[in-house]
Amino acid sequence: MFRITVDVYSGRPNPVIEISNDDEIRSTLRQLSANRSLATAEPPAEGGLGLRGFQLEIMDDELARRYDLAGSLYIPAGAATAEFTERLTSLAMSGNALAVPGFEEQTTFDEGLRDYLLGQLERSSSGTVQEGSDKQEPATADAVCYYDFYAFNPGFWNDNSTTLWNNNCYNYASNWRTNTFAQPGRGCGNVWKAITAAEVTRAALCDGMHRRYDCFPDTEKPRNLVALVIAPGPAFIDYHWYRYHQGGFWGHKPGGTAARNVDNSNQTITNPETADRGPYTIFAGYFYGCDSQRRRIR
Amino acid sequence: MRLEVDLYSGRPNPVADVGADVADELLRRVAALQPAPSSSASSDRLGYRGLRATAFAAPGAPAEVFVSDGTVTVREAGGEERRLADPDRALERWLIGAAAGDLGAAEAAAVKDDLGR
Questions:
Q1: Which residue stretches of A134-196 are H helix?
Q2: What's the pLDDT score for residue A28?
Q3: pLDDT at A163 over 60
């Protein structure tokens, strides 16, 4: 999934549209990956009034890695990007506009806005997007279930200060950037009430995780293998998550610090049960995340 | 001044508003520190990582002062950073002592436990 923010308004919140059509996402990112000069890391300082550009946010690090793109990209409006931004405009029409609290009636993306944007964009002759098969990462089997693992991509989490500061271990384990410091259970409306193995487990299951060996179907890919640990106190009480990666090691993101694949002794984490976890002394178990769970977290 | 204890992974870090007297004394002590050796270690780990002071009221004050494990990182409003040495973590000990009343007892105890090692 990715989000498109149409950078067009001055006083009102810009419309934000969530795109979930996988074919469209792959095709769009493939085109962008092949034409990197279309994008900049940040919006230009001299924006002006009216349509300025489109902010793209890729929501999971595997998608960003697959197309070798940053998690957040800005496509300035203009003749050089006209074809691609026209495509984004059409794509935005097919997505779901996200409500901005207090501005629900004002942030929709409708035909009137689409026509305005298309009118603003300078047309150029259309090109051909090369289609190719998407390579699927191999799944691995345990006794019963299949789960999925992907390459370690810490830059997605670390290179942007907003992403770094506002996403925690639960975001990383879920491979879903919310910029809300996501809490187990908040997405399902029943956030954790105490930090114990049983209660954080309950909250994560409420969000849609499964205990290990309670399988998810293929339709729930990516089914990440994750591990939960608890710091029981008495002074230091917290929880922490790890996610399994291609290469046989585990990654994690301690709070608002950088994602990494080493433990407190600077050793690559090959087993979260035996890694140096500092005060997180209770190993609470393995779980599977899944697509609906990661979309639910808040 | 806003003081964040960089402590947790899953939970949000505890944050306290600390009085101007503590903020002024922190800046006075930081001004007296010497540059840190270039090999000073990173504070990234699970558990207590350091104390982050922001939102100073004093004119010309830095945007952020991060005190961690013998090193003080000062980030100026313009974005430039400098690293200073905090021998024996003396500044860190003083700061947690001065702010302990503004923090939860458990958080203050967790920091003091780490400083005692």
A1: 155-158, 161-166, 169-174
A2: 84
A3: yes
Q: Indicate if the pLDDT at residue A34 is higher than 80.
A: yes
User: How far from each other are the two terminal CA atoms of chain B, in whole angstroms?
Assistant: 28
pLDDT exceeds cutoff 80 at A273: yes
Query: Chain B within 8 Å of A183 (Cβ-Cβ)?
Result: yes
Q: Which of B7, B9, B54 to mutate to test the interface with A (most CBs of A within 10 A)?
A: B9
- In this prediction, residues A230-246 reach a mean pLDDT of 94
User: Tokens 């409003």 identify what position?
Assistant: B77
- The 8-class DSSP code of residue A194 comes to S
Mean pLDDT of B8-23: 94
Task: Please report residues of B whose CB lies closer than 8 A to that of A170.
Answer: 10
Check CB contact of A254 with chain B, cutoff 8 Å: yes
Residue of B6, B11, B46, B64 to mutate, interface with A, max A Cβ within 10 Å: B46
Mark B37-62 as b/e (b = at least 16 C-beta within 10 Å). Answer: eeebeebbbbbbbbbbbbebeeeebb
Residue numbers of the domain that contains B6? 2-115
| Contact (Cβ atoms closer than 8 angstroms) between residue B23 and residue B73 | no
**Each residue's pLDDT tens digit, B26-78:** 999 999 999 998 765 666 789 999 999 999 999 999 999 999 999 999 999 99
What domain count does chain B have? 1
- At residue A217's C-alpha, the angle toward residues A214 and A218, to 5°, is 135
So where are chain A's domains? Answer: 2-120, 139-296
Helix (H) or strand (E) holding B28: helix B20-31
CA nearest to A33, candidates A63, A77, A59: A63
